[in-house]
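Same chain as my last thread, 181 residues:
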Amino acid sequence: MARFTPAELEAARDRLVPDVAADGLRVLFCGINPGLTTAVTGHHFARPGNRFWPVLHRSGFTPRLLRPDEQRELLSHGLGITNVVARATARADELSAEEYREGGRLLALKVARLRPRWLAVVGVTAYRAAFGERRAQVGPQQRRIADAHVWVLPNPSGLNAHWTVRTMAEEFARLRAAAEG
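reply #2:
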């Protein structure tokens, strides 16, 4: 993967990255917001060290390890990607509480329009902030958004040291089993 200069990354701040989505997906994965590497490349979870793609494969969602630039192949597996907040930042802590709440409102409208069976929010903190569910934990949620079941997954960022690739893949696999059932 190409290395980007600090100037190239900074120029990507606030950029929007198109969703990888279609009507009637099995699972719509929802990140917090695009990072700067994602904004530069236009590919979700593109930062080196982000464990989304390895975990997705290891959990059985994809038959092989996909690269971020192969993200459109997710659609053939009934999977897609969106974000709670659309604008790119260097860190999620740059987002305001209002951005999370508005992102949750817009995400609910998107889910109603696209009708995925499952919405999988990667990051319990983002889910709590976007939907006011302060006590939410990783795993299936009682709440539905539109008609979609909701599952909160661990954040695959390399900064999330509480979860290993193995333990994240186990949680993603639990969602996969529920989505197939």
